[in-house]
Model the fold of this input.
Amino acid sequence: MLLEDQRFLHEDLERLEQGISDRISEDPRHLRDRLNKDHQISGFLNRIQEQSKRLLDIYNDADGARAREIQTISTGDPFDEFYKQMEDIKEHHRRYPNEPVENLERAYKRKAAVDGDIVTSEVDNMFTGEEAYGRFLDLTTRHEDYLNLPGVKRLSYLQYLDYFDIFTPPQCPIKRADKSTDQYFKYAGDLADYLEGFLRRTRPLEDLDKLFDSFDDEFEKDWNANKVPGWGTEATPVGPAAPKTEGTGEGIWCPDCEKEFNNDNVYKNHLTGKKHIRAAEARTARRANGTNGEAKGSVNSRGSSVQRLKDRAIAEREFRIRKLAGTMQGERSDTRVNVERKQGMTERERQMELDALFAESTEPMARNGDDESDSDGDEKIYNPLKLPLAWDGKPIPYWLYKLHGLGVEFPCEICGNFVYMGRRAFDKHFNEARHIYGLKCLGITNTTLFREITGIEDALKLWDKIQRDKKKERAGVDSIVQMEDADGNVMPEKVYYDLQKQGLL
Done:
């Protein structure tokens, strides 16, 4: 009964389109409801693709079954075919008497909450409490895995949020040889999988497969060109103590331990330490393996190719982590602010916040139509002080409003008389694109010297003064007259006459 399947698929596609249209017309207030709406739309779009593929296969009619069915219906006695198909339907229901019937009219409509019932959401089990429905990252487990890696320095959770996507010294103390361990390989893979899964959970309507493919193509180009940070082709050291490029170049560099020492005595004491001796023996063994590899020929080349493949797998995970972290800069900065905020809260305040979040996630969803408008009228937020709204749509506490000084206005003439509420937003805006663009429109290129300056006239005066001082400095350097005393000492003319007056020459 291909024609009935064809009709069913067309009806299903129309119901899906109507379901998507109904959800797009909604404007949920809470982040949870918005995420739930996006995930439902994403599921409908995936089903549309599957059903369209089935419908296209029926229209293509590769085996000719559809053409035969049409011919059977159009030729001969139509009642014979009708009773034959009806008998097939009865036989099917006799074989499966309790099979439920799918009601397409109600399948894609939003379920209204009955009085006292809680409507479960698709995103209820997708996020942890720390993630707050995709607002923040939850890297506590990854932080613990990082601290258990060999050779790492202990970092706080806030420091880890800043450095988890940096895999080169000095932020990452893990050496390239230590990255080949299974423990590090698992850590990098788990971190990349978490970031990728978080992106899929928070952005269900974006074409993320295309984004990930672009990451793979970019990594392939950089890997072939040896441009992946920290994974370039290592050159074989020549001589007993070939220098490396790490370090500032001012102190004494230890090539065995890959550390720099500013004091000669500390370096000499370090040479007798157990750690240095073990590192020197390991380095000597690597050189010996390289020398033996030249004699072994193809055996060593096969081993180096295997090691190169392993390095490529680890470098690919690090590259993907960097790209994913760059894509989620907003969530990353919000996570840092949230962690700092929670560190300043008491246990009672944290528990109250969790209770409020749980109460919001379990409150019944508003009904459509008149009930929705009535519920909006009943739940009108009482905010006589005009306080800013928090992430849950409710006004922030008044003490927090006073603590951050959000009632103080900071106008900036350079930003087009834009008014910033609170000192924190005002300090932050000096590094934002709006303020930098305003300075460039005034012809000011060095924006770092103009912090705390908001007036156009003041900025122009300071810029003119900087330019005049630079011209004077260049002119002064060019016009200095050098004098030489009897002993051959060269000095400026003013210093020479001052010393002469004092009788020192």
